[in-house]
Amino acid sequence: MDRSETATLPFDCRQLFELVADIERYPDFLPGWLSARILAREGGQLRVEQVLQAGPARLRFRSRAQLQPCSRIHIETLDGPLRGSRIEWRFTALDGGRCQLQLHSRLAASNPLLELPLQWLAGGTGRRLLPLFEQRARRLYGNPQPPDAAHA
To answer: Considering only CA atoms, which of 29, 47, 45, 28 is closest in space to residue 37?
Structure first.
């Protein structure tokens, strides 16, 4: 199951990078995320254990996140029912302190019986993932002023 989304947000890339890299906070604002715990931090990598609720199925897995500050986050699952899944975030700075945020994901279930719950999770959360991150950014950083409003 492949999915791509792009949004231009009125926040700088540093803010959005920090928001996406704060994986332990995902259960606070992403439907279906029951828990996310950092197991290890090594240089620019995190090893994370996560538990998702997808319909009646509970999906527990470990993943590795490779962090390239303010430009890229690459996440791949290491084990569990989503083994082989990948998520890539890209952050591109734009004029006026804005950031283009790109999300590419490839989700795969290691067991065919999990395809339906995975489709449910991807369909429910996936279509609104970037708006959920934008809402979280607005709660944390406020509503940024357009560049011209600062000079009025």
So the answer is: 47
Instruction: Identify whether 146 is part of a domain.
Output: no
Say if residue 78 is exposed, middle or buried (CB neighbours under 10 Å; 0-12, 13-18, 19+).
middle
Residue pointed to by tokens 């996310």:
36
Structurally, how many domains does the chain consist of? Answer: 1
Which tokens sit at 89? 């975030």
Task: Calculate the CA 84 to chain-centre distance.
Answer: 17
Q: Work out the angle at residue 73's Cα, subtended by the Cα atoms of residues 55 and 133, and round it to the nearest 5 degrees.
A: 55
pLDDT band at 120 (very low <50, low <70, confident <90, very high): low
**Can you give the residue range of the structural domain that contains 54?**
2-141
Instruction: Give the CATH number of the domain where residue 64 resides.
Output: 3.30.530.20
Question: Are the C-beta atoms of residues 31 and 125 closer than 8 Å to each other?
Answer: yes
Region of poorest pLDDT, from 12-26, 36-50, 97-111:
97-111
Q: How far apart are the C-alpha atoms of 143 and 152, rounded to whole Å?
A: 17
pLDDT in tens, 61-74: 999 999 999 999 99
